[in-house]
């Protein structure tokens, strides 16, 4: 497999149009979103829109924001992502483990 990086702009924000451009060029089978240190809201609906345009699955890693999602402080990826993963021990404060 080959991976491609979409990164963030100088202001620290994801440029969804750049993600769209890259996706249309490389035609990925899977788009991964989620971050360990992204201080902004992740727009899962935009990621899903892009994934649908290129026929890709959307995978959201919410390990670092799961507590915020559960508390309703961050939008949930569940209506948008095909697969969601998290840990049980980071923001959920449970025993070490993972969930898909």
From TrEMBL:
Keyword Transferase: yes
Documented EC number(s): 2.1.2.1
One of the GO BP terms on file: glycine biosynthetic process from serine
UniProt-listed Pfam families: SHMT (PF00464)
Signal peptide: none
Keyword Transferase among UniProt keywords: yes
SUPFAM superfamilies xrefs: PLP-dependent transferases
Residues in Serine hydroxymethyltransferase-like domain copies: 1-100
Protein name: Serine hydroxymethyltransferase
Organism placement in taxonomy: Bacteria, Pseudomonadati, Campylobacterota, Epsilonproteobacteria, Campylobacterales
């Amino acid at each position: 497999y080959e991976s491609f990086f979409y990164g963030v702009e100088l202001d620290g924000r994801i440029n969804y149009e750049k993600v769209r451009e890259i996706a249309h060029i490389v035609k990925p089978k899977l788009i991964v979103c989620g971050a360990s240190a992204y201080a902004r809201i992740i727009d899962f609906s935009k990621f899903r829109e892009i994934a649908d345009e290129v026929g890709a699955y959307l995978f959201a890693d919410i390990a670092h924001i799961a507590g915020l999602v559960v508390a309703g402080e961050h939008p949930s990826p569940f209506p948008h992502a095909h697969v969601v993963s998290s840990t049980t021990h980071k923001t959920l404060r449970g025993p070490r483990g993972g969930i898909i």
